[in-house]
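Possible regression after last week's pipeline update?

I re-ran a chain I had predicted before the update to compare outputs. Posting the input and the new output here so someone can diff against the archived version. Not blocking, just want to make sure nothing changed silently.
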Amino acid sequence: TAAPERPLARLAADFHAVLDDDRVVVEGVFDAAARRRLAAVLPALAACCTELAATPIGVTVQHDDLHDGNVLVCASSLRLFDWGDASITHPLLSLGTLLEHCARRAGVSPDHASIVRVQDAYLEPWTSLASRAALREAAALARRAATLTRALTWHRILTLDDAVVARYPTTLAEFAAKVSAAFAGENRLH
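New output (post-update):
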């Protein structure tokens, strides 16, 4: 199947649709109150996506689950696999999972110098389009916006079959909490 299209201009609206989806309601976990609190950050989400969309980097496929467990070393080359979470959107959104995973694996904070080096290496191909400072700002926006694509991906997975939500009742709440945390400074949720 084709990768879903997730244009930045539509991410907030797509997330709003998740919040309105009664199939994923789990009382005490992902209930009406939690969904109302998340709806309050939708303007901040949209503003972040609008700012990221203004960068000179075009839309392409982004992996959305990029980490060392999804990389094969084949002789002298590397191959990425497990493209099941991929979408057509801004390529810097792949930084969300990548940098979170790297920090967790290394046991360091996400702003540690070693993680910044990984981020800078990822940004290198776009240095002909924007300054390093502008790319770092875009990366900060992308790391926040990436919480949306992860939540949207898990919503898609959980709603493939009614039994899936019942089997993984807290999964969407966990990804929604990451959205909340990414935008908590702009809008208090509790």
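Follow-up from reviewer: compared with the archived run. Strands lie at 60-62, 71-74, 77-80, 87-89. Marking as no regression found.
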